[in-house]
Amino acid sequence: QVQLVESGGGSVQAGGSLRLSCAASGSFFSINAMGWYRQAPGKQRELVAAITSRGRTNYADSVKGRITISRDNAKNTVYLQMNSLKPEDTAVYYCNADVRTRSLAQVEYWGQGTQVTVSS
Q1: Is 113 left (phi over 0), alpha (psi -120 to 50) or beta?
Q2: What tens digit of pLDDT does each residue of 54-102 get?
Q3: Are 39 and 91 in contact (CB under 8 A)?
Q4: Nearest-CA neighbor of 108 among 116, 94, 117, 97?
């Protein structure tokens, strides 16, 4: 089993910054892509940013230039640095990891979610 534990959410004013962290723990062979998704009330969950084990990144158009994803493979941790936050960034943010298990199966895991609230 793999656990993803998120931290760093909170409330900020528009223009502020937050840094989210997500640490993976448990027994697994390797972690491939890791990413952050978000879900606002009444909306579908959407990709914010993703990063491969080799550092290739992918961003939603709405966050490009304001949000940066990074990871520390040695710590099995992914980060999301969010700057110039806007009220429309308000959502529950979920960490996601594509894990190769000890039996070499590919399994997707999700964190429990962390609330980000941006006030105008």
Answers
A1: left
A2: 999 999 999 999 999 999 999 999 999 999 999 999 999 999 999 999 9
A3: yes
A4: 97
